[in-house]
Amino acid sequence: MGDSAGLQFVSSYAFEAMQKVDVVRLAALSDPELRLLLPCLVRMALCAPADQSQSWAQDKKLILRLLSGVEAVNSIVALLSVDFHALEQDARKEQQLRHKAGGSNAESILVSQLQHGLTLEFEHSDPLRRLRLTLSELLAIMNKVADSNGEFFLKSSELFESPVYLEEVADVLCILQAELPSLLPIVDVAEALLHVRNGDWFLCLLVANVPDSFNEVCRGLIKNGERQDEESVGGRRRTEALRQLCQMNPSQALNIRAMVVEECHLPGLGVALTLDYKPDAADEAVSPLVSYVSGLLLGTNSKVRTWFSMFIRNGQQRKRESSSVLWQMRRQLLLELVAILPRSRSTHVPNDGDVEEEGGSGYSGLREEHVVKASALLRLYCALMGIAGLRPTDEEAEQLLQLMTSRPPATPAGVRFVSLSFCKLLAFPTLVSTPEQEQLMVMWLSWMIKEEEYFESAAGVSASFGEMLLLVAMYFHSNQLSSIIELVCSTLGMKIAIKPSSLSKMKTIFTQEIFTEQVVTAHAVRVAVTNNLSANITGFLPIHCIYQLLRSRAFTKHKVSIKDWIYRQLCETTTPIHTQLIPLIDAYINSILTPASKANPEATNQPITEQEILNVFQTGRQRYSITTQLLILYYILSYEENLLASTKQLALMQKKPKSYSAALMDQIPIKYLVTQAQGLQQELGGLHSALLRLLATNYPHLCLVEDWVCAEEVTGTLPLLRKMMLPKIKAHVFLPAFQKLPSGSPRLMRILEHLTLLSPGDLIPYAEALTASMALLLEPAVPRRILQTANKLWMGLNTVMPRRLWVMTVNALQPSAKLLRQQRYTQNDLMVDPLIVLRCDQRVYRCPPVMDIVLHMLNGYLLASKAYLQCHLKETADFDRQSQTVSSLGVPGQPDTPEVTREELKNALLSAQDSAAVQILLEVCLPSSEEQQLGATTDSLLRSIRGPGGVEAAEPEGGLLSDLREVQCLICCLLHQMFIADPNIAKLVHFQGYPQALLPLTVAGIPSIHICLDFIPELLAQPQLEKQIFAIQLLSYLCTQYALPKSLSVARLAISVMGTLLTVLTRAKRFLFFMPTLPCLVAFCQAFPPLYDDVAALLVQVGQVCSSDVATKARDIDPFIARLQYLKEKPLEAVVSGGRPCKLTLPQKTAEELGGADPDVQLCYCIEATFMDIISCTLHGL
Q1: Does the pLDDT at position 1073 exceed 50?
Q2: Alpha carbon 822 to its chain's center
Q3: Which of 881, 905, 935 is the last residue before a domain boundary?
Q4: How far is CA 468 from the centre of its chain?
Q5: Do 573 and 631 form a contact (C-beta atoms < 8 A)?
Q6: Out of 49, 173, 527, 662, which could bridge 542 as a Cys pair, Cβ 3.0 to 4.6 Å?
Q7: pLDDT tens, 1111-1142?
Q8: Helix, coil or strand: residue 738
């Protein structure tokens, strides 16, 4: 508002005195300054105060003394003597009248017809009329503002423009607003004053006389303001008025600026207030302007960012104006930039005209105290150009380039400044426009390469700008321009739209002048590894560069060995794991196995040697971190998996990389490391899950579910307390305690109980002593508690060192004859032939705690054997096939071995192993001759299934809780797991068959045996009589255990098959088939009574066939058929009087009679006995 330039505004000193009612300060004001504050002071002196204190009474006297010598006070007192109530009523009537008339000024209640202009009327009027004139004019402006719908207008008002009466009008305005606040809200009055000339002056006087309204007025003006204030006259007037208010009250300027940002209105005002702000501390690192604009453009509020960016873009479209806030801002920023440039670079202070370039050849360094400010300025200019679309002038571009190519001191802030400068060059390559500037940039980049190592060592930072240079060079060589853009944006900390085409000039400079690919690879290997690399170290590190070079295969192209660097970096790692380590290992493995090109199959990297791997896991003078060990383990497992996966491609190239030996794998504590990783999952990122995936594929025997369940920490206060007070037990006293069994049982028990409180990792030193003493546990009279505790310790060790523990245990449990021959098995022996586990001391089979260990090892080695054979098949198949293809060239008629045959042979071998293990375990379940004499039977689990009338046999001496019974339960649990894992094993075992005496045990003890119902029809269809008999016997137990609809249908089929076989079998085979199968019909009828008719018909049919054969030889002295028909038709008439069933009895035959009888005669008696059993079971059920 240039129209009020000659007027005197209220000073900040005077405003502060009014705010605090500081009478002493007010007395020190000059007469012109005091004149502006008279309306408030006069009201203060005349009105009755709310403060009745003595101090205010004294202050009031001073104010009256101060006013006594001022002539204008009389006119203000006269104004206050008016009846304001009547004036307000007239004003409201006038408002209503104007509202009805549609805003026309035809009639006025406040002011009658004016004879002269407003100024003359005001001069000649009494105080009341002056009030009425001013109020009428003000209400007219306020009404027009309300009806303007936000469109700005400037109303010409003689009253507010006459310089002679401005002070009197201001007095009237202040008195009106103070006395009629409901009619004239101060925010509305302030808004109206913006539409008249000298409005900002009137506004400042109004607020100065009502100082408490400052914030309210400012917030109202900002809320009603434009989103872009420099676009319109109204916006500029509003900004200027608020700027004057803040100059009057500078302590509130930053709060007003915060309101501007909050409302996203008047961006020019925010900048202007920042330019006006003078901080108390002049030595701030970053200026208020840089901080404010950076906060708007780089903050998280996208709405504010868009709003301010629009201010920059719109401001550039207008011609350069010195009054424009945007150009004032740019001018100030340029002055700050020039002020921190090294003196030899630019001693020129720019003016409003063109800037002449002076002294651009010097290279003195940037001062240390200016580095942080320079970095902030660079980021701000990046935001202005990249986000807000600022187009720098030639002057700005030149000075920016001078700043970017300056050389900071070797401090962390200096490293940051160089990184920012480099990224700004990449983001805005248009800053380099002339050949001289391009040469300057190349010289600066060369200086960066030369000084990188010194900066890193002197600044003490791990992430220097050297890695960023290498990384960008690699990206340029591999044409990954999008990656360069991501790198630039992440370093600058802002999202900038960079066109890949704009990087073409920089790409040429990098790839042809500064960093050729060979230079990049040679330099990368010499870069030192990052010490204690972890995710806590941010920025761009050597590992990023090496990773990109590995991906682009630069090392193999130029025959540069990178193995040693990768190994050293893996050894220098700690938690939390850096996110780039796993991708680095994967890329390294790929570069080992896959040649860079088909033309040069030898162009691969070298793998890490076995000795280097062993050094990581051996506990010597240098102890490596758990992170290093886990990463090396991941490397080995992933390398082996990728080697197998790429066997076909390697075979075509006649290339076979070396696999790591089994001896090396045996020395790595895989399970222990994975267990440790389980507790560090948060710090290891995805490494733990990657290791589990590799283990499940290549080492399934280390991923047994029961092992994970058992791996629980010792918890509870008492066990932990005992563990803390636990004395150290030497491993060498462990073995003698075992050798004194059973007399030394109490001492050994105390040692074992102490060991149970240790963690599995702490038990490792005792593993050899424990396994070496396993055979001593098999001696008679060893307490069961010792056996169970030893089993618990073994299971604990199994969670951390399973493979070595298994080998030691298998060797310790060999029979004494083998121990004398000193035959020691290796891990490889046991994977090739898992059945070695079962070739142990026979006493193991009747020692349940040790048998539990043996079964655990057997299950693990069966899984390990599968993985071993699968791996062996992949390793040899493609190379064998390749050699066969080469050897068979030119030999017609020589067939190749098809791949499917090898797979089938492998599956056949695995099936044979599994079935052999099952058959051996089933054989173990059979009682020995001594146990049979003691009364142990295998059908103890299923006593109630068989027997006439369901009568149970007497329990054997000693009860069911015997070692045999416990071993049978353990074996059944393992067989249940095996049958679930692979149902084909169950089918194969039952097609092979096993002793009929074991059927009660297997059916009752293996829950998953019900799957046999699926293949019993197929087993019945086999031509061998033994398999058909076994199928019917198995079915009889299954029907009793699982009385399901499916069992009923299979039982019907079995009865039908028996009837069919009756018609085709010879006399001798008929006897062999029906004698063991006829008793099974009792179980069919007991499980499914509806089968009674079919079974009775079959029995009668069999009886008829047999009796007819007997009749051809001799007279049937026993009316057998007649009895059978009677039993079939009237089975319930075998009930005695009184309705109670009695036990049916057959005519007693001596053993000699039956043994010497004809087979058909024996079969006839068997049929009759079966009938009786069926009837007895039926009656017993009733």
Answers
A1: yes
A2: 52
A3: 881
A4: 27
A5: yes
A6: 527
A7: 776 554 455 566 666 566 655 554 443 344 44
A8: helix
Residues listed for the chain = 1182
Q: Please check whether residues 19 and 132 belong to one and the same domain.
A: yes
* Cβ count near 571 (within 10 Å): 20
Exposed, middle or buried by CB within 10 Å (0-12, 13-18, 19+), for 15?
Answer: buried
Mean per-residue pLDDT for 666-675?
82
User: Residue 322: inside a domain, yes or no?
Assistant: no
Report the distance separating Cα 564 and Cα 618, nearest Å. 19
What mean pLDDT do residues 1096-1113 have?
Answer: 82
Range of lowest pLDDT (627-641, 709-723, 1018-1032, 1158-1172): 709-723
Place of tokens 């194969």: 988
Q: Name the least confident of 711-715, 817-821, 970-974.
A: 711-715
**Cis amide prior to 583 (ω within 30 degrees):** no
Q: What is the model's pLDDT at position 620? A: 54
1059-1069: buried (b, 16+ CB within 10 Å) or exposed (e) per residue? eebbeebeeee
- What integer pLDDT is reported at residue 1133 of this predicted model? 56
* pLDDT range class, residue 361, cuts 50, 70, 90: very low
Q: Name the least confident of 306-310, 896-900, 948-952, 1168-1172.
A: 948-952
Same-domain status, 825 and 733: yes
Task: List the single range of 356-365, 833-842, 1168-1177 with lowest mean pLDDT.
Answer: 356-365
Q: What percent of the chain has pLDDT over 90?
A: 10
Q: Are residues 192 and 76 in the same domain?
A: yes
Q: 85: exposed, middle or buried (C-beta count within 10 Å: 0-12, 13-18, 19+)? A: exposed
Q: Is the pLDDT of residue 266 over 80?
A: yes
Q: For 910-926, what is the mean pLDDT?
A: 91
Contacts of 655 (CB under 8 A, 6+ apart): 595, 601, 602
Residue 1084 lies in a domain: no
1029 has pLDDT over 90 = yes
d(CA 1148, CA 1170): 15
Sign of CA dihedral 611, 613, 619, 622: positive
- Domain assignment present for 688: yes
DSSP letter for each residue of 1002-1025: HHHH-GGGGGGGGTHHHHHTSS-H
State whether 677 and 742 are in the same domain. Answer: no
| pLDDT reported for residue 920 | 93
Bond into 1045 cis (ω within 30): no
Number of domains, the chain = 3
Which residue carries 């036990």 as its tokens? 1143
pLDDT at 1103 over 80: yes
d(CA 923, CA 995): 9
Cα(first)–Cα(last) distance of the chain, in Å?
115
pLDDT mean over 308-333: 82
Q: Are residues 614 and 632 in the same domain?
A: yes
Residue carrying structure tokens 């809320």: 223
Nearest residue to 782 via CA among 734, 744, 733, 735: 744
What's the rounded Cα separation, in Å, for the pair 802 and 114? Answer: 111
Rounded to the nearest 10°, the torsion over CA 186, 188, 194, 196 is -90
Query: Residues 587, 708: one domain?
Result: no
* Rg of the chain over all Cα atoms, to the nearest angstrom: 51
Q: Is pLDDT of 224 > 50?
A: yes
Tokens of 1023: 């031509």
Q: Print the domain residue range for 202.
A: 12-276
Asked if 193 and 138 touch (Cβ cutoff 8 Å), the reply is: no
Residue 138: count of CB within 10 angstroms of its CB: 26
Domain shared by 743 and 862, yes or no: yes
Last residue of a domain, one of 850, 881, 912: 881
Token pair belonging to 149: 């719908």
Beta carbons of 838 and 801 less than 8 angstroms apart: no
Per-residue pLDDT, 442: 82
In a domain, 203, yes or no: yes
